[in-house]
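Structure ticket #2291
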Amino acid sequence: MRDFLLGLVFAIGGGVIVAVARTYPTMPTLQFGPSLFPTIIGIGMILGGVLLTLTSLTAWRAALGDSRGVVGRFDWRGLALSLVPCALVVFYILTAEILGAMICMAVSMLALMLMRGARLWLAVIVALVVSGTIYWLFSRYLLIPLPEGLLLSQRLPFSSLSLAG
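Resolution: structure written out below.
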């Protein structure tokens, strides 16, 4: 049941991405525009979601012959764990301006690593190093300003504001 629901969510999400990407403007000098990559990602999500949904339907057919039925096999914990990454994306969107991108990334990575059974000390170190590296690469080399948040506002030596000087 979890794979069926996740497959539907991915297929619908891919359809929304493709629909939104079709509204992007086209470039008169190019044969492709800013809608190319979101459309490719959306089509991939649609295909993956449909494939996941169809394979779970075949598993349902096999389970219907089982004496316990499909309802006895439903894994609520697995479904909840599958939705945690979506909840962390919503957490990032809602709190990045307040906490900052680096802290939000670190908290998200820490939560995901602890969910998968990593040791606390290793999860903390990896989350801090990786989130700091990602923030540094985006702000220093890719020149993409990420939210610093109120806590770290203008305190980071490699922040996007220090690039102007």
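Closing remark: The two ends are 55 Å apart (CA to CA).
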